[in-house]
Amino acid sequence: MTETALGLVKAGSFQVPALIADIGPEATKRYFEFFTVPIRNKNTRIAYYHAIGQFLDELPMLTDLVGQMMHLEKFGFHLDLVPLPHPSGASPWPRIEPGKTLTKKALALIKNHPAWISRV
Q: What is the DSSP letter of 68?
C-alpha cells in the first residue's frame, strides 16, 4: 500500500500482515480500525502501519515458540528464554491442543532450569 493510499482507504483494500489475516475477518477489521479511527494524523498512521507490519511479518506462530528454550547472548549475559502464552485467561489457547501440551512443556523447561532450581 502506498503512503498516499493509507490516508483514505477502505477496509476491503487494506493490506494486513499474514499473521493478522490468518486470524480472520474480525482481526483484520480491528487492525484496520487501529490505523483509521484513533490516529488522526496521516503521517502517524503511515508510520505505525509500516512499523507494525514489519514487526508482525517476522513473528513465528505460537506453536513454533511455546515449549522451546531459546538462548540469547545480550549485554554480556547468557539468557535462556522460554516463551509462554499470555496469562490473562482471555484466550483459550493454553487450554486447548496444541497449546495445552506446549504450555506444559514450557513450564517443565522452567521448572527444570538450573536458575529456577537454585533460586532458594
A: -
Question: pLDDT tens across 19-39, in order?
Answer: 777 888 888 888 777 777 777
pLDDT at 44: 84
Cell numbers 532458594 label which residue? 120
Task: Please tell me the pTM assigned to this model.
Answer: 0.54
Statement to judge: residues 34 and 76 lie in one domain: no
pLDDT-based confidence at residue 78 (cuts at 50, 70, 90) = very high
Q: Do 24 and 11 sit in the same domain of this protein? A: yes
Instruction: Give me the half-sphere count of Cα atoms (radius 13 Å) on the Cβ side of residue 73.
Output: 1
Domains held by the chain: number: 2
Q: Does residue 39 share a domain with residue 81?
A: no
Report d(CA 22, CA 89) in Å as an integer.
21
Question: How many beta carbons lie within 10 A of that of residue 108, not counting itself?
Answer: 12
Domain region containing 75: 62-117
Cα distance between residue 117 and residue 114, in whole Å? 5
Residue found by looking up cell 506453536 in the block? 63
> Domain check: are 70 and 89 in the same one?
yes
